[in-house]
C-alpha cells in the first residue's frame, strides 16, 4: 500500500469526527475546574482572594489570546467566554470554529495559565486541571446565558457565606432568602453589603487607560459587574455588532 493512500485512509477516520460550529453566530466557551472541591481544601472560606485573583489573571490571558473574544465572566471555578466572528464581512472564526480545537486549546490555555499563577500564591498545591465545552447561541439568548450563570453565582455566594458561618445541619432545608435572614439575625451579616464580585462574579472586559497622553486599552476585571437582568445592555453591546455596522 502506498504511504499516501494509507495516510488518506487514516485521515478519513479522523475527519469523520471533526465537527465545526456554525459560522457568524455568537460562540460560548465554558471552562470548568476539575475536582475543585478537593483542590481548594484548606483555602480561606467563603472567598479566597488570592485564588480569585488567579482566576482573573487566567481570564485576562484567555481574553487576550482567544481570537474574537469580547468578554469573559468568572464565578466559582468556572469561566465563560463570549466570542463573535461577525464584526466585519471578512472576520474569521477561531480555529475556523473547529469544535475539537476550540475546547482542547481553551482548556489547555486555562490549565497552563492558572497553574503558572497559582504557584505564585500557593506553591505547594497540586496542579489544577480544567475541561471546556463550546457551542453557539442565537444572539437574543446570549445575555440570558450570562444571566443564568450569574444567578448560579448568586446562589453559590449565599450558600458559601452561610456555610462559612454555620454548621451544615443548621442550614438544611433553607432557601436563599432564609439563609440571608439567618445570617442577618444571628450574625449581623447582611449579604447585600458584600462587594459585587463576591455576590455575583465579575466580567473581564477591555477598559481604557491613559499612558502618557495616549489612550490604551487592556483587559481588566469589572469589580462592579451589574445584575444582568437589570442591565441587559452590558452584555448586548458585545453581541449586536452586526446590527450596528450592517454586516
How much is the average pLDDT?
Answer: 94
Class from secondary-structure proportions: alpha+beta
Q: What distance separates the N and C termini? A: 50 Å
Low-confidence stretches: 243-247
* Quantity of strands, as a count: 6
Query: Any idea what the shape is?
Result: globular
Radius of gyration: 21 Å
Query: Total number of helical segments?
Result: 9
Residue share in helix: 40-55%
Q: What's the order of the H and E elements? A: HEHHEEHEHHHEEHH
Please, could you describe this protein's structure?
The radius of gyration is 21 Å and the shape is globular. The chain is α+β, with helices and mostly antiparallel strands. The protein has helices at residues 3-15, 36-39, 49-65, 99-121, 139-165, 176-187, 196-200, 233-239, 241-245; strands at residues 27-33, 69-75, 78-83, 130-136, 202-211, 214-222. It holds the Pfam family Thg1. GO terms for molecular function: nucleotidyltransferase activity.
Amino acid at each position: 500500500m502506498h504511504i499516501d493512500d494509507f495516510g488518506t485512509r487514516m485521515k478519513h477516520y479522523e475527519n469523520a469526527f471533526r465537527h465545526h460550529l456554525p459560522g457568524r453566530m455568537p460562540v460560548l466557551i465554558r471552562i470548568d475546574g476539575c475536582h475543585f472541591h478537593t483542590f481548594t481544601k484548606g483555602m480561606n472560606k467563603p472567598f479566597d482572594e488570592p485564588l480569585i485573583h488567579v482566576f482573573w489573571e487566567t481570564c485576562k490571558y484567555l481574553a487576550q489570546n482567544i481570537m474574537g473574544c469580547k468578554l469573559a465572566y468568572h464565578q466559582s471555578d468556572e469561566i465563560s467566554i463570549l466570542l463573535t466572528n461577525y464584526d466585519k464581512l471578512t472576520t474569521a472564526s477561531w480555529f475556523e470554529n473547529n469544535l475539537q480545537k476550540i475546547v482542547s486549546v481553551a482548556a489547555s490555555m486555562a490549565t497552563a495559565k492558572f497553574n503558572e499563577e497559582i504557584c505564585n500564591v500557593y506553591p505547594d498545591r497540586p496542579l489544577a486541571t480544567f475541561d471546556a465545552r463550546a457551542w453557539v447561541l442565537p444572539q437574543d439568548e446570549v445575555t440570558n446565558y450570562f444571566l443564568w450563570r450569574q444567578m448560579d453565582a448568586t446562589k453559590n455566594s449565599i450558600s458559601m457565606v452561610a456555610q462559612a458561618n454555620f454548621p451544615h445541619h443548621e442550614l438544611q432545608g433553607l432557601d436563599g432568602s432564609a439563609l440571608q435572614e439567618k445570617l442577618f439575625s444571628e450574625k449581623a451579616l447582611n449579604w447585600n453589603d458584600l462587594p459585587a464580585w463576591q455576590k455575583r462574579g465579575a466580567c473581564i472586559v477591555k477598559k481604557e487607560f491613559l499612558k502618557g497622553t495616549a489612550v490604551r486599552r487592556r483587559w481588566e476585571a469589572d469589580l462592579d459587574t451589574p445584575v444582568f437582568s437589570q442591565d441587559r445592555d452590558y452584555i448586548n453591546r458585545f453581541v449586536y455588532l452586526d446590527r450596528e455596522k450592517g454586516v
